[in-house]
Design brief:
This is ATP-binding cassette domain-containing protein. Keywords: ATP-binding, Nucleotide-binding. With 224 residues, the chain is an alpha/beta fold. It has a domain of 153 residues: P-loop containing nucleotide triphosphate hydrolases (Rossmann fold). It contains six helices and ten strands, in the order E-E-E-H-E-E-H-E-H-H-H-E-H-E-E-E. Strand 1 and strand 2 form a beta hairpin. Helix 3 crosses helix 4 and helix 5 packs parallel to helix 6. The longest helix has 13 residues. The protein starts with a strand and ends with a strand. 40% of the residues are buried. The protein binds adenosine-5'-triphosphate. The site of adenosine-5'-triphosphate (ATP) has 14 residues, from helix 1.
Length: 224
Amino acid sequence: MIRAEGLELTYKDGTRALEEIGLVLEPGELVYITGPSGSGKTSLLKLLMGMEFATGGSLEVLGERMRRGNSGRIRKMRRQLGPVFQEFRLIPGSTAMENVLLGLRFDGTPHGKMKEYAEEALLRVGLSQKLHAKVERLSWGERQRVAIARAVARKPRLILADEPTGNLDRENALLILELLASFRNPETTVLITTHATHLIEGQETASILHLDGGRMRLERPVSL
Ligand SMILES: Nc1ncnc2c1ncn2[C@@H]1O[C@H](COP(=O)(O)OP(=O)(O)OP(=O)(O)O)[C@@H](O)[C@H]1O
């Protein structure tokens, strides 16, 4: 599902964000990437999503080599990704339903299925009462749920969530992590970055990877 070897990312201004990252993730894993601010968590997700390209080493995501020359195939592969961005990236002035539908429009979902998929996803995240509410009328936790619904509506094989609990209190943060983890299944891997290590302590069946200064170490191995 994900294979990285000697992965490096140095930004154009010379910042070394990631160094010597080695990573193998299989279908069905639940993985947390922890680490302090600036340790490279978002940078790693950007590489996995094809929003940046590595400056060293190799990376394969869902069978595709993540390098510049492969952008056509990467674009197709991205339809199987469910990204949840740190800042949500919802469309202001639009409803929860419209936001999820928009996410489906560009990823090859058959037109006749779009509404069904969007409703199903919004129900799954507990927003059945808010389908037609404009996003700016929603609480932060609800907005996060819309962002998750948009990511999962296409039934992705890899869910990538960047700091999904950032704006939430402890109780809501735990609910959001539980919700994201619930999408893990034998075909679907869920990868979540968080600096809130105290929230994931009780997770028995997850892998925890720790980034520090762009380098990675395994905190706890997988026990599926
Ligand atoms: N576009 C960019 N250009 C140059 N440097 C960048 C860029 N994006 C991130 N960085 C730098 O790369 C390093 C890793 O940043 P990154 O955003 O990946 O960390 P993070 O662990 O996600 O942090 P946070 O928890 O604060 O979101 C930091 O030193 C950051 O300043």
